[in-house]
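Usage

Read records sequentially. Each one opens with the input sequence:
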Amino acid sequence: MRLNAKTAIVTGGARGIGRAAAELFAEEGAAVWAADLSLDEPFEHPGITFVPHDVTSQESWASLVERVLDESGRVDVLVNNAGLVGSYEGVETIDLDDWRRIIDVNLNGVFLGTRAVIPVMRAGGGGSIVHTSSMWGIVGAVGVAAYTASKAAVRSLSKNVALTYAADGIRSNSVHPGIIETPMVLAQDAALTQGIVDATPLRRLGTAREIAYGMLYLASDEANYVTGAELVIDGGSTAQ
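and closes with the structure output:
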């Protein structure tokens, strides 16, 4: 029970990596608030509460945190996981509306969520914030301009939060997945996905559960001396 008696918010919690994290955290004793725009398949674990939530809305964040405080009394962990690829276009060809939407979800959503929980964590004596970046937040990729820019910004923002709020007992770390078997990845062009897998040293898709285990470590007290770090879980892609 590595998260026993802790309260966690997981965004993008209805599917993919977010759902895997919500389920694993609940198995490890946390009261989990899985926040997402919609829910396709109900959670079976009684420790998970689903909340409709738009990460790009400051009002939605205020409502979510208020509800969690009212019912759980604290926020110990925030997993800023909600995100999308949105477009594989490069700088010259990406539609401006796509650019703005991707930045809004992937970066502004992380900013707003972090901003919303910091006062609560400070009042509670600290906490852990885990941000989902990407291997493409560390290394470049052809095209995918908005996604790579947003994920690199999340990596840097995570370090900024770590340094700014260390004295408050708030830890901030980023997770950098490679190509992972999620609904988002399975819905994209199969040849595109296979090309990324072929370039991955372990030659397979990662699983959402494998990413969730990394998040669990960073959320737990086992990582009390870990802040401002990058946990890369990418099958060896960025080692090349």
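Summary fields computed downstream for this record:
- The chain is about 40% helix and 20% strand.
- The beta strands are 7-11, 31-36, 48-52, 77-80, 127-132, 170-177, 180-181, 206-207, 230-233.
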